[in-house]
Amino acid sequence: MPTINPQAMAVTGTSPTFSAPTASDVLTPTDRGVYIVRTTGTATTVVLVIPGNDTFGQAKPDVSSTLGATDVRAFPMTAYTQVVDANNQITITHSGALTGVTSAYVTI
């Protein structure tokens, strides 16, 4: 799984570099991070995989969001700092064909 590295925002403004995601990527969430997905002609479902079980032994539910063929979605990483795996990361999956899907991870 490729690791998505954060891009730091500058006080003068930042144009994030978007790149093609793979079917499964990982990132280290921070309280100041935002994961952004942009689609240009291809719909995709983004799933933020929540590891582990709750106090009843049931799997914690993943967070899923479906983007249309021309869409932009921003996922604040604040809540995900509490549900990281043993490497302090979360896994993000994208379904379907990824032609026309790009993403960026930005921190302030």
Order of helices and strands: EEEEEEEE
End-to-end CA span: 25 Å
Q: What share of residues are in beta strands?
A: 35-45%
- Supply the helix-strand structural class: mainly beta
Unreliably modeled segments:
none
Strand order of the largest sheet: 1-8-3-6
Helical residues, percent:
under 10%
Number of strands: 8
Number of helical runs?
A: 0
Radius of gyration: 14 Å
Shape, principal axes of CA atoms: globular
Concise summary:
This protein has 108 residues and is mainly beta. The chain is 0% helix and 41% strand. The chain has one domain (7-11, 19-107).
Describe the structure.
The protein is mainly beta and 108 residues long. The chain has one domain. 0% of the residues lie in helices and 41% in strands. It contains no helices and 8 strands. The protein has strands spanning 7-8, 24-27, 33-40, 44-49, 63-67, 70-76, 90-94, 101-107. The strands form 2 sheets. A 4-stranded mixed beta sheet has the order 1-8-3-6, with no helix packed on it. The protein has a 4-stranded antiparallel beta sheet with strand order 2-7-4-5, with no helix packed on it. The radius of gyration is 14 Å and the shape is globular. 19% of the residues are buried. The mean pLDDT is 93.
Topology:
Elements: E1 7-8, E2 24-27, E3 33-40, E4 44-49, E5 63-67, E6 70-76, E7 90-94, E8 101-107
Parallel strand pairs: 1-8
Antiparallel strand pairs: 2-7, 3-6, 3-8, 4-5, 4-7
Attribute tags:
108 residues, 4-stranded mixed beta sheet, 4-stranded antiparallel beta sheet, mainly beta
